[in-house]
Design brief:
Pfam families: DAHP_synth_2
Low-confidence stretches: 219-233, 266-305
Catalytic activity: D-erythrose 4-phosphate + phosphoenolpyruvate + H2O = 7-phospho-2-dehydro-3-deoxy-D-arabino-heptonate + phosphate
Protein name: Phospho-2-dehydro-3-deoxyheptonate aldolase
Keywords: Amino-acid biosynthesis, Aromatic amino acid biosynthesis, Cadmium, Cobalt, Manganese, Transferase
Mean pLDDT: 86
Radius of gyration: 23 Å
Number of helices: 14
Helix content: 25-40%
Structural class: alpha/beta
Bound molecules: phosphoenolpyruvate, manganese (II) ion
EC number: 2.5.1.54
Strand content: 5-15%
Largest sheet: 8 strands, parallel, barrel
Length: about 525
């Protein structure tokens, strides 16, 4: 891998897995030009704040909750759906905070999760026609008549992401997301009396705790210390993410920005003026410099009076993907010599990579060296997804390989993607018990290997059907959803998601685990 030659389009010379083939190249170019001119969705300082919070996650000082839909759709972009999603993520994290007494970093699969990889390029319809597979609203339409990839959809995805994020920002700053009002997030949806009682116990405890800390004049309550609008008691942070699958889209939203001032420390200047446009790591020649930058999150005053140094300090730049705070590489696009790994290695955002049964230990070591060459805490998250049956066979050797490599990573468990099955009625589903089984094995194996599980990655939804009930896509949970009930309110057009009650069941299970 040639580390000198990275730029936002260097992925174009590599093999592109899951590539989308557009028939109208001119149209694609126009869309790319337009996207390049549009404003960023997220800012470098937000991205850096997430990076520093993820460094805490990696040290075991916080827990990472990564969750949301398998795929968002343009039609499901409504105020009810967005607030239900945020409400569920907040409720889930509150239960965890309460049990584990650890801050929770929340990253939603939201505001951009519009593209999907597919195992087959085409799909055979019941009437015998063969059409392109549905690849998510960013690429083509769900209707069989609308399967030709259309570049215009990338612009729509940008604007749907913008409007989603705009509403999320509104919710976060207008009191909805405040720890002071947790009842607003979910209680209306919790029908099970036992679950309701458990959740109410926590919200009452929390109200007391916040009241107490206000009375004694304590600062941020139990909110994450580095985050939250400063000075607002009990406010929370929230970040966005999606699979970085459509590299045309990701490249167009990649922008060269100066590092936020807090990161421009004199220690990151090694005597050579830095050149905008090269990946940050290429500018560093000595390991001491790298180590200082990695660990430096405090504001450093520029006491230098030399203009050269001052100029160099102002010239510390990073390539930021401004479409989301966090992006991940899927299990089908993580080839070492492929386009996705090439693109991801040069962006400054914290990134994730899916790790499944097909990953060789040596391959994993190479991958983490390429994706986190400066060994920066919080930079790289491994999202493991083996399946409950296979985790015991693969995770221990992956943990050992990573430990021997010395590259720091965050480990999170995705108990969804290795546990998908088809019900007798033909619906794609997952069983709550199997999901719990993978999480439980994951926790145990990490402990046995002298490692720590730092979080979970889930597909869940707070979405309600039109008649006001939770969706019915996964089997089991405290509501004991059966195969016969799956068809009642099955709303996912992609992978099956845990519904509101099943998600809270899992939250309590994790919370109780950490309480012990
Ligand atoms: C997903 O997260 O929706 C997904 C497709 O996962 P994976 O890449 O692990 O199969
Ligand atoms: Mn999925």
């Amino acid at each position: 891998m040639d580390s000198e030659s990275w730029n936002p389009s260097s992925w174009r010379s590599k093999k592109i897995a899951q590539a989308v083939e557009y028939s109208d190249q001119d149209h694609l170019d126009k869309v790319r030009t337009k996207l390049k001119a549009l404003p960023p969705l997220v800012t470098p300082s937000e991205i850096e704040r997430l990076r520093s919070q993820l460094a805490s996650v990696q040290l075991g000082q916080a827990f990472l909750l990564h969750a949301g839909d398998c795929a968002e759709s343009f039609d499901a972009c409504t105020h009810e759906n967005i607030s239900n999603k945020i409400g569920l993520i907040l409720s889930f994290s509150l239960i965890l905070i309460w049990g584990a007494r650890l801050p929770v970093v929340r990253i939603g699969r939201i505001a951009g999760q519009f593209a999907k990889p597919r195992s087959s390029k085409t799909e055979k319809l019941a009437d015998g026609r063969e059409v392109f597979s549905f690849r998510g609203d960013n690429v083509n339409g769900l209707s069989p008549e609308d399967r030709t990839p259309d570049p215009q959809r990338m612009l729509s995805a940008y604007f749907y992401s913008t409007t989603t994020l705009n509403y999320i920002r509104g919710l976060l700053t207008s009191g909805f997301a405040s720890l002071n009002h947790p009842r607003d997030w979910s209680l209306a949806h919790v029908r099970s009396p036992a679950l309701r009682e458990d959740f109410e116990r926590i919200t009452e405890g929390l109200a007391d705790a916040l009241d107490f800390s206000r009375t004694i004049g304590a600062g941020e309550g139990i909110a994450f210390e580095q985050g939250g609008p400063k000075g607002v008691h009990g406010e929370v942070d929230f970040y966005t993410s999606h699979e970085g699958l459509m590299l045309d889209y990701e490249e167009a939203l990649t922008r060269l920005f100066p590092l936020p001032p807090a990161l421009r420390s004199p220690a990151s200047f090694n005597g050579t003026p830095v050149v905008p446009g090269t990946p940050l790591r290429n500018r560093q020649t000595d390991p001491l410099t790298t180590a200082s930058r990695s660990s430096s999150r405090r504001p450093v005053q520029n006491t230098s009076s030399t203009p050269l140094l001052a100029e160099a300090l102002d010239n510390v730049w990073g390539q930021y993907n401004t479409s989301a705070h966090f992006l991940w590489i899927g299990d089908r696009t993580r080839q070492l010599d492929g386009a996705h790994v090439e693109y991801f290695r040069g962006i400054r955002n914290p990134i994730g990579v899916k790790v499944g049964p097909s990953m060789e230990a040596e391959e994993l070591i190479r991958l983490i060296q390429v994706l986190n060459p400066d060994r920066e805490p919080g930079r790289l998250t491994l999202i493991t997804r083996y399946g409950a049956e296979k985790i015991g066979k693969f995770l221990p050797s992956h943990i050992k390989a990573v430990q021997e490599s010395g590259v720091p990573v965050i480990w999170i468990c995705d108990p969804m993607h290795g546990n998908t099955l088809t019900s007798t009625s033909g619906l794609k589903t997952r069983n709550f018990n199997t999901i719990v089984s993978e999480v439980t094995s994951c926790l145990r194996i990490h402990t046995e290997c002298g490692s720590v599980l730092n979080g979970v990655s889930l597909e869940f939804t707070g979405e309600m059907s039109d008649d006001g009930f939770s969706v019915t896509e996964c089997l089991g949970g405290s509501m004991e959803l059966t195969e016969e009930q799956l068809g009642l309110r099955y709303q996912s057009f992609c992978d099956p998601r845990l519904n509101f009650e099943q998600s809270l069941d899992l939250a309590f299970l994790l919370s109780n685990h950490y309480k012990k």
